[in-house]
């Protein structure tokens, strides 16, 4: 159930979704490595607009921002009044390069970065709505990620993960009115299509937004092994 995302390169996504994007309002992407809730994130809406949206879903009828949701469960999305209409009529794709999850180890929480095995993008299934922001005195587009059970690899860290869409399913997700067909896309993403590595605790800081956020942290045993290997090589 990710609450922090990373999107620093959307070039391949734009190519893959070129037949669906009708209005590119994002233009040149502003790279972000540690995106928390309530901040802008690009999304492709089912009206053809690719634009920056508010990460944190608010239905149009919400009385305040206290009802904001970052995630919607795939198992109950059609049953919940909050999400039901958006699932029917306002679906979107949220492209990311990866997301963060925290593993509970003793009393500490260790951050991990989850990304595509080929270091490409992950296309997350989402929903959107327009909400009138009284502070801005304007309507804003708000989005939520849809989640499902985690695959075995990620399940060692967290029991939920985002629903990830394949390129071939983009059009079905955005434009198919047959919800039975849409529901078939709520699949657990395969273990062999993601990679996970530990990152610096600096990512815990909401304002820390640097490429080092996603850099792999070498554990003590890895460093020891490297030293041993170097020592063995020096004998010859």
Write the layout of secondary structure elements.
Blueprint: E1 5-7, H1 11-16, E2 23-24, E3 32-35, E4 40-45, E5 49-55, E6 71-73, H2 81-89, E7 91-96, E8 98-105, E9 108-116, E10 122-133, E11 138-149, H3 152-155, E12 160-162, E13 164-165, H4 170-175, H5 179-183, E14 194-198, H6 220-233
Describe this structure in words.
The chain is of the alpha+beta class and about 240 residues long. It has one domain (about 5-235): SOS response associated peptidase-like (hypothetical protein yedk fold), CATH 3.90.1680.10. The chain has helices spanning about 10-15, 80-90, 150-155, 170-175, 180-185, 220-235, and strands spanning about 5, 25, 30-35, 40-45, 50-55, 70-75, 90-95, 100-105, 110-115, 120-135, 140-150, 160, 165, 195-200. The strands form 2 sheets. The protein has a 5-stranded antiparallel sheet, with no helix packed on it. A 5-stranded mixed barrel has the order 4-5-11-10-7. Its EC number is 3.4.-.-.
What descriptors fit this protein?
236 residues; alpha+beta; hypothetical protein yedk fold; five-stranded antiparallel sheet; 6 helices; globular; covalent protein-dna linkage; DNA-binding; hydrolase; DNA damage; SRAP-like
Instruction: Report Rg.
Output: 19 Å
Sheet of most strands: 5 strands, antiparallel
E-strand count? 14
Q: Which class in CATH terms? A: Alpha Beta
Side-by-side strand order of the widest sheet: 3-1-8-9-14
- Inertia-based shape: globular
Structural class: alpha+beta
Beta-strand portion reads 25-35%
Helix content: 10-25%
How far apart, in Å, are the first and last alpha carbons? Answer: 50 Å
Q: List SSEs in N-to-C order.
A: EHEEEEEHEEEEEHEEHHEH
Average pLDDT for all residues: 91
Note the total helix count: 6
Task: Give me the CATH fold name.
Answer: hypothetical protein yedk fold
Reported CATH architecture: Alpha-Beta Complex
Total domain units: 1
| CATH homologous superfamily (4th level) name | SOS response associated peptidase-like
EC number: 3.4.-.-
Keywords: Covalent protein-DNA linkage, DNA damage, DNA-binding, Hydrolase, Lyase, Protease
Family: Belongs to the SOS response-associated peptidase family.
Organism: Poseidonibacter parvus
């Amino acid at each position: 159930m990710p609450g922090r995302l990373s999107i620093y390169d959307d070039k391949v996504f734009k190519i893959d979704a070129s037949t669906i994007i009708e209005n590119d309002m994002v233009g040149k992407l502003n790279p972000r490595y540690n995106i928390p809730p309530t901040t802008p994130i690009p999304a492709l809406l089912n009206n053809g607009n690719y634009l920056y949206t508010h990460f944190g879903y608010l239905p149009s009828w919400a009385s305040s921002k206290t009802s904001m949701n970052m995630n919607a469960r795939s198992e109950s999305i059609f049953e919940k009044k909050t999400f039901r209409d958006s699932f029917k009529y306002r679906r979107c794709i949220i492209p990311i390069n990866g997301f963060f999850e925290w593993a509970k180890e003793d009393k500490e929480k260790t951050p991990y970065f989850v990304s595509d095995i080929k270091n490409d993008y992950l296309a997350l299934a989402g929903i959107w709505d327009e909400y009138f922001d009284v502070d801005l005195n304007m309507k804003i587009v708000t989005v939520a990620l849809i989640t499902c059970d985690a695959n075995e690899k990620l399940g060692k860290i967290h029991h939920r993960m985002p629903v990830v869409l394949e390129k071939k399913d983009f059009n079905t997700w955005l434009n198919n009115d047959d919800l039975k067909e849409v529901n078939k896309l709520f699949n657990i993403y395969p273990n062999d299509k993601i990679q996970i590595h530990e990152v610096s605790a600096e990512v815990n800081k909401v304002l820390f937004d640097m490429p080092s956020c996603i850099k792999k942290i070498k554990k003590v045993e890895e460093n020891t092994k490297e030293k041993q290997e170097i020592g063995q090589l020096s004998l010859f």
